[in-house]
Design goal:
Layout: E1 2-6, H1 7-19, E2 28-35, E3 38-47, H2 54-61, H3 81-86, E4 92-94, E5 97-100, E6 113-116, H4 129-143, E7 150-154, H5 160-168, E8 173-178, H6 182-193, E9 205-209, H7 216-221, E10 224-230, H8 233-246, E11 247-259, H9 263-272, E12 275-283, E13 286-293
Parallel strand pairs: 5-6, 7-8, 7-10, 8-9, 10-11
Antiparallel strand pairs: 1-3, 2-3, 4-5, 11-13, 12-13
Helix pairs in contact: 4-5, 8-9
Length: about 300
């Protein structure tokens, strides 16, 4: 779905989308200029995994502060657009981590932990500011002496954050989960590719499919010293009480997927859940938060 409008109108629509806590996150938005020589003429594009309903069209057009432009709707060919967009990504450095796709040769750099993450249907090759920020945050936590014996990666995608935590705390028990069933095979394949052990023993990874933390296996393997969640601001607000309950007193929580404009709402929900801010990283428009559960609650 494409809507043409002046830059100010598209930017206002994107801000309205950021502030919406009940947005259907199957509708993905992006705003860009139409051409370099037309900086004030923009387009808002919306991608859906289905034919848009009247409600879908209304949700997108309703983001505009005034009369909305007429949307142009077209069907895209069947293609793995995520993999296509990620296939030629350059290697990235985040803290002590280096992440590359198989198309790039190994770097073999000293004091560097390298992961190979192919482009796939799952999110998290390390190239998005949120994933790279989480890697940097985990590295900083390790350097500050954080000890982790049991960790959980919620919304794991490719499994990269779980792999990173396992590399930093190799004797810890590791659990990863995602709401998208495709991630189970993706994580398994990436674990084999990166020689990450799988299984229920300490030092190995257990993967499950679950909405949020709602799964018997996640409950049985907790409580956790560290929970990571690089998802979206709305779900982070909703899951804040579950994060608090899943952590041991003094446990650590790393959150990402939230814009700086959404940080206040996420931090307020975490405060109500007994979590206090221990550190933050701002990467572009994105915030990465390190929080801790209060001792004795």
């Amino acid at each position: 779905m494409t809507l043409l409008a002046p830059r100010e109108a598209v930017e206002a629509a994107l801000v309205a989308h950021e502030d919406s806590l009940d947005w259907d996150y199957e509708i993905v938005l992006a705003g860009t200029e139409i051409a370099e020589d037309r900086p004030d003429d923009w387009k808002l594009e919306a991608w859906l995994p289905r034919d848009p309903s009247a409600a879908d069209v209304g949700a997108v057009t309703g983001l505009f502060p005034g009369p909305a432009p007429e949307p142009v709707i077209e069907a895209l060919p069947e293609e793995d657009w995520v993999a296509r967009s990620q296939s030629d990504l350059e290697p990235i450095h985040a803290g002590r981590f280096l992440v590359r796709t198989p198309e790039h040769e190994a770097q073999a750099q000293a004091n560097t932990i390298e992961f190979v993450i192919p482009a796939s249907q799952a999110f998290g090759t390390g190239h998005h500011n949120t994933t790279a920020g989480c890697l940097t945050m985990l590295d900083a936590m390790k350097r500050r002496g954080v000890v982790v014996r049991n960790h959980l990666d919620v919304g794991t995608g490719t499994g990269l954050l779980a792999f990173a935590a396992m590399a930093l705390w190799p004797r810890a028990s590791a659990t990863a989960s995602d709401i998208d069933a495709v991630c189970a095979d993706v994580v398994h394949e990436n674990a084999v590719l990166n020689s990450v052990p799988l299984g229920a023993r300490p030092g190995a990874l257990v993967m499950t499919i679950a909405p949020g933390l709602d799964h018997p296996l996640i409950a049985a393997r907790g409580p956790y010293d560290l929970v990571m969640a690089n998802i979206l601001a709305g779900p982070l607000v909703e899951l804040a009480p579950d994060f608090g309950r899943a952590l041991v007193p003094g446990g650590h929580l790393v959150l990402a997927g939230l814009l700086t404009t959404q940080e206040a709402a996420v931090r307020a929900a975490c405060r109500r859940a007994g979590l206090r801010l221990a550190g933050r990283i701002v990467s572009g428009d994105w915030s990465i938060l390190w929080l801790r559960r209060r001792q004795g609650n």
